[in-house]
């Protein structure tokens, strides 16, 4: 028994009613010749003020939150995942088959015992909340058990300053994770392909001169896409104007009075399991005042999955989708 497995066994002996089966890596951990060689390791990767050292390519990693899971899928390392958890919406068709090969450990966050039962060597999450005591547990504790960790730099919360949301900073997260798995060339390929998509969107500028309200959720107030997050990046990419671009942060609660005063031409709706686009449209139509907004009266709604509005590997897909839907509205 390896030292790491011995540590897991000791930790599990104190857990209550743990499942007896463990989800492991493929039998041939080196089956994919594209995975980095031993010469590329150890790899040090820092996130949210904590540095992890990875001595070899992970063979039984866990991803938590949709953003983290989809970065792993985009990098093609699904065979090296021992489990995943916590979706906001559907995994897109291009990765669905790969996703379905990965065990789902919990609908939301698995607890510490469930994490240990999967014997991971790397845990990657989009939000620091994944490492709360009632979830995976403290990162330092996992490190003591030989489990490296990484949190998206956009999900540190109060743990550390978050970087400005740019496509470069999004690509840097993908590059960090690719380095851990030993597939840096795959991250570079993603960067190049997405940069080409963005260049094409910029040339077309389908949103030029169009004022947009990005509506995430809320009823008493509206959680709007503000001037410093994924929605702003998307609207900038297509040349559209965010009516709340002067509000700080990625997201901000704004009053409905301010929405009415802005009277946007188009409303972009984030579609998530916890706040569907359909529910938001129904609320806008039924409200005596909001129903008179120009965008509502003329049914100028654009809908994208929530996961295409947050900093991550699908953000460029979100820009492409918004551009296609605005083009279909034929506002020019």
From TrEMBL:
Keywords assigned: Signal
SUPFAM superfamilies, alphabetized: Helical backbone' metal receptor
Keyword Signal: yes
Signal sequence, renumbered to the chain: 1-25
Cross-referenced PROSITE patterns: FE_B12_PBP (PS50983)
Residues in Fe/B12 periplasmic-binding domain copies: 60-332
Family membership noted in the UniProt record: Belongs to the bacterial solute-binding protein 8 family.
The protein's name in its UniProt record: Iron ABC transporter substrate-binding protein
Organism: Saccharomonospora viridis
